[in-house]
Design goal:
Belongs to the N-acetylmuramoyl-L-alanine amidase 2 family. This protein is of the alpha/beta class. It is about 20% helix and about 25% strand. The chain has one domain: 3-Layer(aba) Sandwich (Lysozyme-like), CATH 3.40.80. It has a 6-stranded mixed beta sheet with strand order 1-4-3-5-2-8, with helices on both faces. Strand 3 and strand 4 form a beta hairpin. The chain is globular and about 35 Å long.
Length: about 220
Amino acid sequence: MGSPDQCPSIISRSQWQARPPVSTPETLSVPVNYTVIHHGGSNSYCTTQTACAAIVRAYQNYHIDSNGWNDIGYNFVVGEDGNVYEGRGWNAVGAHAPTYNTKSIGICIIGDFTSLLETAVSSGSVPSLRVIIVHTHFLADRLPNQAALNAVKQLIQCGVDSNKIRSTYQLIGHRQNTASSTDCPGNALYNEIKSWSHWTANPKSVNGIQIAGEKEDPINDAA
């Protein structure tokens, strides 16, 4: 593992009460060349360990029970409590980005970081007529808080220091995977990671093969 100064607080699977994988996970060949950033794509946020752990359990339940996957799809999940939650971890192939699964660490930040519609209803009147007025507009894109962003950066550096991620890794957002059709990780978060070191606009082609029986996470597809 990397040095204590570089590694964020990582909540183990037992601490967030994870279910065991359905079967023995495929071993990930490390160090990997890619780090893929995701968002949860649902309007659920958390700033406490109790709340974040509950959302991570919900992700895992959905991936296993609805998608028929072996486990939660991500290698790690990050909450706005500043903690990292161990998913498949450093040494197991994830199910988060087709063609990149066998060559990357997938990190998901809890929440939805794309534009949301806000609707407000007001009323007015004209002689003999009551008028209902509906105002609809897009909210500004919401970024994860600084605690979550710092935890992601520290986790990546921890992976580099512990030889799980190559020092020359390429950082991408899920939407850059040409095998996907998604806005993940949301406009705000995607624009943020574009300013980080190692982000690449044109990742090299990947010939990895997606895990048999697993597919892209529909939570992210909806984002």
